[in-house]
Design goal:
The complex is a heterodimer of chains A (165) and B (249).
Chain A: H1 9-19, E1 38-42, E2 47-50, H2 59-73, E3 80-83, H3 96-105, E4 107-108, E5 135-139, E6 147-152, E7 158-162
Chain B: H1 3-23, H2 32-60, H3 66-71, H4 82-85, H5 91-112, H6 118-146, H7 150-164, H8 167-171, H9 175-182, H10 193-206, H11 228-237, H12 239-243
Chain lengths: 165, 249
């Protein structure tokens, strides 16, 4: 494939399918597309646009490299990978499939449309293990910048919760 | 040195130096949750510094990127406020510093989301969401320590007493920022003070603490006049790049 100056709809669809297979390095059950990190494909000059979840998230570099490798392996070497900051990433961009995968993995997903709500009043979420709503925050900061540490008062299990952002 | 470059250094250096200070707590915090919190705050701040200093380097146009600016400048060339370079002290002192800085920074970034400089506006829109968490976390701890035991109350009060002298500098406006504020790039920080004072008073009231009134504000960081502490911090932060110049991963 030569240095294409632009992409067509078919190529764009193929790129999105390929990126749908690229896992998030911290939460490998969810793809970078379902997490809303891939913002889209620009046709000309061809580029995949990605956005960081948090400015200091160390996974951002790994994600960029994984996207690059996936594109190269599929013959899209001429498609650039560009980081965009605006509009800023929000948990509302996590797809329904992504939310289901997070729950199955033991991470409580953020409720849809919750990003703009006050952080202070984070409502209790369903425990991803037993489904109980009797849960409480243990620490606002968890194992990665995007997660908070919660516990379930029914089954006593701790769990990660994706922070509404 | 252009005004915009100086302004970006001030913003970026505040984040960088405080992020470095917080990283000193990694592995030493009172509990695992606090360790995670302070490390996460540090990470957010260093992420913001990367964006702000990266832009500063582009504006300067001399080929310096964020790393170059962070690791190859001397203390006199840093433009952070004095508050962020002060040592951690005990946990209460660290919380006092964080509470005052994040409350200020949250008000500032909120306004900067409307900057006429598109890059500053988009960095602010990203940062303000993170800083909201920092301000909340610090305020929670001010209340918990202030309204805690006799000893935690005493330490929290002492921490705030020490840092109060550095507060005025955060809101100070000079020619550089006044001119940028007029064109809508920067904001009039003095106008943010009432909002800051109100927030601080309400948190201190909940924490059963008295607002400290320090009559002699200390300033100088914005023009490169720093306390001795910054040199020691840089000696550690810049050690690798000074020992092995141009080393890369």
């Amino acid at each position: 494939m030569g240095a294409a100056a632009s992409l067509d709809a078919a190529a764009t669809a193929r790129i999105m399918t390929i990126l749908g297979e690229v896992p998030d390095p911290e939460i490998p059950v969810v793809s970078v597309v379902d997490l809303g990190i891939v913002r889209g494909v620009r046709l000309a000059p061809p580029a995949v646009l990605i956005t960081p979840t948090y400015t200091g998230c160390p996974a951002t570099l790994v994600i960029e490299a994984s996207v690059r490798s996936a594109l190269d392996a599929a013959g899209f070497g001429e498609v650039a990978v560009e980081t965009v900051l605006s509009p800023p990433w929000t948990t509302d961009w996590i797809s329904d499939a992504g939310r289901a995968q997070l729950r199955d993995y033991g991470i409580a997903p953020p409720p849809k449309g919750s990003a703009a709500r006050s952080l202070k009043g984070d409502e209790p979420v369903e425990c991803p293990h037993c489904g109980s709503a009797d849960t409480q925050e243990v620490s606002r900061f968890g194992s990665t910048p995007c997660k908070a540490l919660w516990r379930c008062r029914s089954c006593q299990e701790p769990f990660d919760r994706f922070k509404c952002h | 040195m252009s005004g915009l470059f100086q302004y970006l250094l001030r913003l970026g250096d505040d984040s960088l130096i405080l992020g470095q200070r917080l990283s000193e707590w990694c592995g030493h915090s009172p509990t695992i949750e606090v360790d995670l919190s302070l490390s996460n705050l540090g990470l957010d701040l260093i992420g913001q510094a990367t964006l702000l200093l990266g832009y500063a380097g582009e504006v300067e146009g001399k080929g310096r990127d964020a790393d170059r600016l962070a690791f190859h400048r001397d203390a006199l060339q840093f433009r952070n406020c004095l508050l962020v370079e002060q040592p951690n002290g005990d946990f209460a002192q660290t919380i006092a510093r964080q509470f005052l800085f994040s409350t200020y920074s949250h008000a500032l970034f909120q306004k900067l989301t409307g900057s006429t400089d598109a890059r500053i506006a988009e960095i602010a829109a990203k940062a303000v969401k993170e800083v909201a968490y920092h301000a909340d976390l610090a305020a929670d701890w001010v209340v918990r320590l202030g309204d805690g035991t006799e000893e935690s109350h005493r330490r929290m009060a002492e921490g705030l007493d020490w840092f109060w002298r550095f507060v005025d500098e955060m809101f100070e406006m000079d020619e550089v920022e006044r001119s940028l504020a007029e064109s809508g790039v920067a904001v009039d920080k003095a106008a943010l003070r009432p909002q800051f004072d109100e927030k601080v008073s309400s948190v201190l009231a909940a924490a059963t603490l008295q607002p400290a009134a320090y009559p002699y504000p200390i300033k100088g960081g914005r023009v490169g006049h720093h306390s001795e502490h910054l040199g020691h911090l840089l000696a550690q932060m810049q050690y690798l790049q000074r020992t092995y110049p141009d080393a890369v991963w």
